[in-house]
Amino acid sequence: MSEKIKFTIDGKECLADKGTNIVEAAKANGIYIPTLCHLEGIKAAGACRLCNVKINGKFVTACTTEVADGIIIENNTPEIQELRKIIIETLFVSGNHYCAVCEKSGNCDLQALAYRYMMLVPRFPYEFEKKEVDAYSTKLYLDRNRCILCKRCVRSIKTKDGKNIFAIKGRGYKEMVNIDYELANKMTDEEAQKAMDTCPVGCIIRKETGYITPIGQRKYDKKPIGSEIEEPVTK
Amino acid sequence: MSSQVQSIVEKYGNDTTRLMDILIEITKEKGCVDSNSITEIASQLNISRVDVEQTLSFYHFFSEQSRGKYTIYLNNSLVAYMMGRAEVAEAFEKATGTKFGSVSNDGLFGLYDTSCIGMNDQEPAAIINGVIFPKVTTFRVRELIAGFRAGKSAQEMVISYGGGQNQSLMIKSMVTNNLNRRGSVIFSDYEPGDSLKKMTSMNTKEVIEVVKNSNLRGRGGAGFPTGIKWEFCTKSEGDEKYLLCNADEGEPGTFKDRVILTELPHLLFEGMIIAGYAIGAKQGILYLRMEYEYLKDHLDFNLNEFRKKGWLGKDIAGIKGFDFDIRIQFGAGAYVCGEESALIESCEGKRGEPRNRPPFPVQVGYLDKPTVVNNVETLCSVVKILLNGAEWYKTMGTIETTGTKLLSISGDIRYPGVFEIEWGMTIREMLEMAGAINPIAVQVGGPSGRLVGENEFDRTICYEDLPSGGAMIVIGEQRNILDVVKNFTEFFIDESCGSCVPCRYLTVILRNKLQKIIDGKGVTSDIDDLVNWGKQMKIANRCGLGQTAANPILASIENFRQEYEAKIEKGKDFGTTFNLEAAIQESCREVGRFPLA
Could you tell me the residue range of the domain that residue A105 belongs to? Predict the structure, then answer.
């Protein structure tokens, strides 16, 4: 058995295994810390910055920080909520997100978070950045209008011999997700589905299949994001 | 299959961590890294194509397409503009017949903007095929382009040599040192090799102890105590340790390391050897920005001299078992690589994206081994501290900030250049020293530092008050502060690695808002938005670049709010200058249809 560590989040006393990051540790205690780039079991990126929490007056990303004994974590404060909302709104205006026509609507973490944070309209002007759609590979297409550059695909989708199928190209606001056609074309249908499911938004989409689950009956159509963590686990 | 690419990859041992060197060498040979080369590199390193592309596309000086037989990179820093960059750029476009960001139809010339190249004391400056052309005028532009059209090489167009080592056979550059003030530490006289002799009588603990006692703090800007950093590294477990020297000085306005690398490479290498000895490293890497590639032969020559003297290699300076050597790792145009963990990533052949911390580089650094990253100036200071003692060092500077600092002063002053001062000088004294001309503001520490106005000119340069990596940009009364702020903000947009959401795009939003105000369309709430949104940058981002990217906006609103207020619509809480006619025209252009008259 691994060592248990005591800490608090917004005043609630919590327990977690030593070595867990704060996102997972919070989850184990029924507290939801929103994330977009985080993926359980994959090396944390700390890229979306959504999971910023405050410890000792300092902001740290919960996904890249391990719990330590006795730490006092602020999570649900107006200051942090404001930052998170700003990040979500920034993502909306940096891409072109038309939920109504998106295959991931209802399964999209960004959309679900916008609802959770009650975003009516971003406070920032839309920039309508031109983005390229890449449909050259046979199994998948990339709609970069929707990409939030979380790098989940980059970090987790690999070939059997460990090669990256996805990578980032460019830097700064010009950077975009890139796909290796040769390797992507060799993916099985299951692997392609996994890639699509890994994408928190509607950027990686499988070809020749879609809308199998009707809109209205999808994951976040039924329950808001985070509620599965926040609900008492007494079922 | 072209064997050229193959042999280059083989030369670097088919080692993915040497991808930077591979791409640099292919760029040298072919002018770019084209699609076929990418495929070849990928297959030979057994990685995917996209992996090669992700490193390639990160760096400013790499390209998949040819950038012309003569590739002209013209600095677009603020000071370049102050010194007439706009007309020089126009002259380049006219003479070459192409626009910035493109290659001329005949494939002869490529014109590109580039972030500060470390020549702020001799702007406007350009890099053409690796050769530095400082003090470019429109006259020179026509002369250069005519020369190139006549088939001359970039080196053949060098018309003078700068002073000091710039005129040595190894450099032969037009760059001038402008070393305006020698202080008691970095530029004081010394006998090369003496510090190594001293070192032989000390064990590693004693070396660290002296540096700790001197209170020397990192000179890159963050100011972490050097001795403590070294001690942390020695306490980290690991069979191998690395010493990296950060010579990526990319902060617009800084150029001090350029002068050290030109005049005192031996001082730096001695410092690296001492640091390597202290932390138990066998390998040192000098991470050098591509902009300073013109110093490569000079630095290689000095390294070889060290090897001949037995100061690099095995049993250095007669110390049994102390084996240490230094290699140069070039960057390829990325400001963010000056951040120590991004620098490490770059040394490993990857995109220069800062790492999450902890773990810190002293625990998990280069190739995941404990690594110390020190600034050029820091390592040079170490040599003198070892020679003269910690007590001597502490007699200079302030209580918390001991020793001297190299300032790179540029902008609206009579004597731009490098000044070695004792910490604790006020901004006002500094301005007087460098002959400032009607200054209204100073950008202390470059864009990531603080824009101070006259109300802060009595503040002192030291960690207790105004910390600085040494870049001082003096802004005269004829300048428009909002243009200054825009230049700095665009610099951060260009140089963001793109990893953190706010740094990647909130900067763009802030710039657009600033532009709205500059265009006279802003209202009071726009200024408040800049403050409220800018504040998020400090808390939200992973590294120093992102955390400071809104500093120019925030500090200028704090110190020069009147400049913003003069531009906005008075007494309005919404913009009233929307031009319906222009908007309709724009829409028509977008869709390509116009209403019949």
Answer: 85-209
